[in-house]
């Protein structure tokens, strides 16, 4: 179990072409690793054996009553956000009112074409994970082809009218598990209309964008569906 080649292959599975080398410092955080096992233990990564989940709860004012103009109901809004990472660079994100016991099953199939599931790619940069997501499309899901630039794990959509979600999350730790927390640091919506990009940044308040916490899911497999780039 201490064989260095085993740990090197484990690191390749997690970081892919961004793994770097042991005789050079990590470009993102200037950390020196003394072995592949040391890198696997100490370097920030995302977990594949489950998904990251957050619960958002807030109050929303309703419409005034017709019978009593002084009465205005207050609605309690609750929903969950799910993010699942795969070893080959794919990522799924879904926002749903379903409890985690039902919500995790909706992103179990990596070829899911549900309209409420965002699909995309992610990259790791030190303790930051960057996501590029798009809404699931029946035509794209059927063909299964996404043109990629050599060496890139980000999707390139040639559709003249497309919407992308650009997200940056910071990896944190819990007392019982490393890399168990994702904290929002940046969220931008980019809309492309007739080859013109318009971007909008979300206000990342703790109330509407709480941290996501990792939850193991036994039904998720860890096999990559395509070779690592």
From TrEMBL:
Pfam families: FBO_C. GO terms for cellular component: cytoplasm; SCF ubiquitin ligase complex. One of its GO terms (biological process) is SCF-dependent proteasomal ubiquitin-dependent protein catabolic process. Keywords: Ubl conjugation pathway. It comes from the Eukaryota. Residues 34-149 form the F-box protein Hrt3/FBXO9 C-terminal domain. This is F-box protein Hrt3/FBXO9 C-terminal domain-containing protein.
């Amino acid at each position: 179990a201490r064989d260095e080649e085993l740990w090197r292959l484990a690191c390749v599975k997690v970081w892919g072409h961004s793994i770097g080398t042991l005789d050079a410092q990590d470009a993102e955080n200037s950390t020196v690793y003394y072995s592949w096992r040391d890198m696997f233990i100490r370097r920030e990564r995302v977990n594949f054996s489950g998904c990251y989940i957050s619960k958002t709860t807030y109050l929303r004012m309703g419409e005034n009553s017709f019978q009593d103009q002084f009465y205005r109901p207050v609605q309690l809004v609750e929903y969950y956000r799910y993010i699942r990472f795969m070893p080959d660079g794919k990522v799924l994100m879904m926002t749903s009112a379903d409890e985690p016991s039902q919500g995790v099953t909706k992103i179990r199939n990596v070829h899911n074409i549900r309209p409420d599931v965002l699909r995309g790619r992610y990259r790791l940069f030190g303790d930051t994970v960057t996501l590029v997501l798009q809404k699931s499309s029946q035509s794209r899901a059927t063909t299964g082809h996404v043109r990629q630039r050599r060496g890139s794990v980000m999707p390139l959509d040639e559709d003249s009218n497309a919407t992308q979600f650009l997200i940056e999350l910071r990896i944190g730790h819990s007392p019982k598990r490393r890399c168990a927390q994702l904290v929002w640091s940046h969220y931008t919506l980019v809309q492309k209309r007739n080859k013109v990009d318009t971007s909008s940044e979300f206000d990342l308040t703790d109330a509407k964008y709480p941290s996501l916490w990792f939850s193991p899911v036994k039904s998720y497999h860890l096999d990559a569906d395509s070779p690592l780039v």
